[in-house]
């Protein structure tokens, strides 16, 4: 056994700005091509393996347990688009999906578009993305990533002959959109260094990509660009977005060589999304201080904001999240008091109603509905106790049909055996913070109950209370699982997000801490049995709270964590940095620098006791570079004053999302859960 943890070499690096000097002894770990760096990461992996050797069989047992609940030969509910039914299915024992379609009816013979299992042969990582079928159903564009850095190679296939065209377009987002001529494709290319999606090109099928025409360049480094096709199929749309502003350019899909025209020029703090219907555009926007967004409308010709008028006015208590347009009605996705609502409004104003949902905490959302002329809305529903369902709702007769409910195999699952609820903690400033939680009905809530508290709280991204088959492995062993809906998400509206970013970012961390304290105070758990988990920006959350209140947690799971906030945000060559300024602030400005330094986990590691920790990352991560957790763990090893476990595992083949195969990703979950269960002595 490797009894001593690796000790990273200390090489002093002075980082100075605004008259402030930081000493970073582990800065050298960002040298990815340096053999010493790879050697250190491998040493950490060896140490991880030695310290968890006693759990290897348990990890395998957990993996098999999780795998046994999954229907291996599963298939998605078919959806219809442009005369074809499309499905995604898995075969028993296979890691990757098969994408297929049938013409006109479900009884027609199946056409396999892609067998990803065959495509992935010889690759340790493989991701197929952005499949886009031409209007005549003959060709398909698709993106391939074999590195896990989200830099896709765009390719094209003849679906009638099976021929893959010779042209390959490197370094794209993987997505693309066809014009109506069935030969012109628009795609987005990334900056090779920063990975910002910055250029839109026009490509003609069968031609050399070197001849592609650049039709848009997003010069503002805080913005990213993309291109898509309206559901009405009339328009090609280029979108540009930052954290606080959006802008669109439109072009008729019948005129691929035409010039895109601007819809409404960007303005700081003006956000809008557009959807085309008939001779009008519908605009979801925060115009006129509509913090929670409202729905507006304008004509195709008069698209500037002064021509927009209200369809659904702004409401202080309701967040307007999205819309879906159909021939005879409009579907609106709202959020009220943290819960999803689906609203249906007929264009002739004859009806305006909500779909009924009964559980105390749940997740619901409109599914992919590509068909325009239909009376059926497809939506998804699940809760912490109810497996995911795909449901078709008939707007005319108000009936619903469950097209598919997620099967939980193994013969042991019964939703009646689990209890979920939503409780509210009080933050230090008096704000009520919701917590969704679930546990087995036989689990007594006492100070000896193990509880895993999950959090994210950034970018306005909301973690809803959903179902997980893998989580059953915790619940069936007496764990409680809880989600802290901290500020920084949009769980309670846009204001909830605004109060958790920039100079309010500290609220995210103190909210999570107050949720932890509340769960302890009401006797649901105790400091000796409370665990925390978060990844990416949620990893920043974990890093901040264990600096502030390490004594609250017995163990912490941290995945792909954003923990070296200042150094990363001061380096605009690092992928995606410039687009983050409106989320965290620009530390080139002293006031932001000073505030970010207050919470940056790496900069606030101190000589104190820390909880037991497992930190995981991927060598090829493009979202949070591997060296952030590597440096953080090295510094924690130097400073921590306890004898608690500190482990780091680096996936040397993967990036931000982890393993690409469905079973490989299960193994990663089993690894994480085994760490928690072992700490509880339940393995």
| Helix run count | 12
Strand content: 25-35%
Radius of gyration: 25 Å
Number of E strands: 37
User: Taking strands numbered 1, 2, ... along the chain, how are they ordered across the largest sheet?
Assistant: 30-31-33-32-34-35-36-37
Mean pLDDT: 94
Largest sheet descriptor? 8 strands, mixed
Low-confidence stretches: none
What structural class results from the helix and strand content?
alpha+beta
Question: Would you write up a description of this structure?
Answer:
The structure is a single chain. The chain has 683 residues and is an alpha+beta fold. It contains twelve helices and 37 strands. It has an eight-stranded mixed β-sheet with strand order 30-31-33-32-34-35-36-37, sandwiched between helices. Helix 2 crosses helix 12 (662-679) and helix 6 packs across helix 7 (537-548). The radius of gyration is 25 Å and the shape is globular.
SSE inventory with pairings:
Blueprint: E1 14-17, E2 20-23, H1 35-51, H2 56-68, E3 79-81, E4 84-89, E5 98-103, E6 110-115, H3 116-119, E7 127-133, E8 139-145, E9 152-158, E10 169-178, E11 184-190, E12 197-204, E13 213-217, E14 224-229, E15 235-241, E16 246-252, E17 261-264, E18 272-277, E19 280-285, E20 294-299, E21 309-312, E22 318-325, E23 329-336, E24 339-346, E25 352-354, E26 362-366, E27 376-383, E28 389-394, E29 400-405, E30 418-426, E31 432-440, E32 451-454, H4 472-475, E33 480-484, H5 494-498, H6 506-521, E34 530-535, H7 537-548, E35 555-559, H8 565-569, H9 581-584, H10 590-599, E36 612-618, H11 627-639, E37 646-651, H12 662-679
Parallel strand pairs: 32-33, 32-34, 34-35, 35-36, 36-37
Antiparallel strand pairs: 1-2, 3-4, 4-5, 5-6, 7-8, 8-9, 9-10, 10-11, 11-12, 12-13, 14-15, 15-16, 16-17, 18-19, 19-20, 20-21, 22-23, 23-24, 24-25, 26-27, 27-28, 28-29, 30-31, 31-33
Helix pairs in contact: 2-12, 6-7
């Amino acid at each position: 056994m490797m009894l001593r943890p690796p000790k990273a070499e200390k090489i002093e690096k002075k980082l100075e700005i605004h008259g402030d000097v930081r000493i970073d002894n582990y800065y050298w770990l960002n040298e990815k091509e340096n053999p010493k760096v790879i050697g250190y990461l491998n040493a950490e992996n060896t140490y991880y393996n030695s310290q968890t050797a006693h759990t290897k069989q348990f990890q395998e047992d957990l993996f098999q347990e999780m795998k046994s609940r999954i229907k291996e030969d599963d298939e998605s509910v078919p959806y219809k688009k442009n005369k074809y039914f499309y499905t995604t299915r898995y075969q028993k024992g296979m890691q990757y999906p098969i994408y297929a379609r049938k013409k006109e009816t479900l009884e027609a013979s199946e056409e396999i578009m892609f067998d990803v299992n065959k495509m992935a042969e010889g690759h340790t990582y493989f991701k197929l993305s952005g499949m886009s079928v031409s209007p005549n159903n003959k060709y398909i564009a698709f993106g391939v990533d074999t590195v896990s850095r989200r830099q896709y190679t765009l390719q094209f296939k003849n679906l009638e002959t099976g021929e893959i065209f010779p042209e390959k377009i490197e370094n794209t987002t993987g997505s693309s959109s066809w014009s109506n001529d069935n030969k012109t494709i628009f795609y987005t290319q990334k900056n090779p260094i920063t990975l910002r999606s910055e250029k839109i090109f026009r490509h003609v099928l069968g031609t050399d990509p070197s001849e592609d025409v650049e039709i848009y360049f997003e010069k503002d480094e805080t913005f990213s660009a993309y291109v898509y096709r309206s559901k009405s199929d009339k328009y090609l749309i280029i979108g540009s977005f930052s954290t606080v502003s959006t802008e669109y350019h439109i072009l008729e899909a019948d005129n691929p060589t035409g010039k895109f025209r601007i819809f409404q020029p960007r303005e700081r703090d003006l956000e809008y999304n557009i959807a085309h219907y008939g001779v009008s555009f519908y605009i979801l926007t925060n115009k006129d201080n509509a913090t929670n967004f409202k729905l507006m409308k304008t004509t195709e010709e008069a698209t500037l904001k002064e021509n927009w008028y209200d369809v659904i006015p702004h409401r202080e208590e309701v967040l307007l999240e999205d819309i879906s347009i159909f021939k005879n009605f409009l579907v609106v996705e709202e959020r009220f008091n943290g819960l999803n609502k689906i609203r249906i409004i007929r264009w002739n104003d004859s009806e305006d109603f909500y779909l009924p949902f009964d559980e105390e905490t749940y997740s619901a959302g409109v599914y992919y509905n590509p068909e325009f002329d239909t009376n059926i809305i497809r939506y998804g529903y699940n809760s912490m106790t109810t497996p995911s369902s795909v449901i078709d709702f008939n707007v005319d007769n108000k009936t619903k049909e469950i097209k598919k409910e997620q099967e939980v195999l193994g013969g042991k699952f019964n939703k009646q055996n689990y209890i979920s609820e939503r409780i509210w903690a009080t933050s230090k400033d008096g704000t009520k913070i919701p917590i969704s939680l679930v546990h087995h009905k036989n689990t007594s809530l006492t100070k000896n109950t193990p509880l895993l508290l999950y959090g994210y709280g950034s970018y306005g991204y909301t973690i809803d209370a959903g179902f997980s088959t893998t989580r059953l492995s915790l619940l069936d062993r007496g764990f409680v699982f809880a989600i802290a809906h901290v500020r920084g998400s949009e769980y309670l509206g846009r204001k909830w997000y605004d109060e958790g970013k920039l100079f309010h970012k500290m609220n995210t961390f103190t909210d999570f801490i107050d949720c932890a304290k509340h769960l302890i105070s009401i006797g649901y758990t105790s400091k000796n049995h409370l665990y925390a988990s978060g990844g990416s920006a949620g990893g920043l959350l974990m890093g901040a709270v264990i600096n502030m209140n390490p004594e609250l947690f017995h163990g912490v799971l941290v995945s792909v964590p954003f923990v070296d906030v200042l150094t990363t945000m001061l380096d605009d060559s690092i992928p995606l940095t410039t687009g983050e300024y409106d989320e965290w602030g620009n530390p080139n400005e002293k006031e932001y620098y000073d505030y970010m330094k207050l919470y940056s986990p790496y900069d606030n590691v101190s000589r104190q006791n820390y909880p037991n920790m497992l930190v995981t990352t991927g060598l090829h991560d493009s979202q949070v570079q591997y060296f952030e957790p590597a440096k953080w763990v090295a510094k924690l090893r130097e400073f921590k004053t306890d004898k608690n476990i500190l482990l780091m595992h680096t996936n040397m083949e993967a990036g931000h999302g982890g393993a690409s195969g469905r079973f490989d990703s299960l193994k990663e979950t089993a690894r994480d859960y085994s760490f928690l269960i072992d700490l509880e002595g339940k393995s």
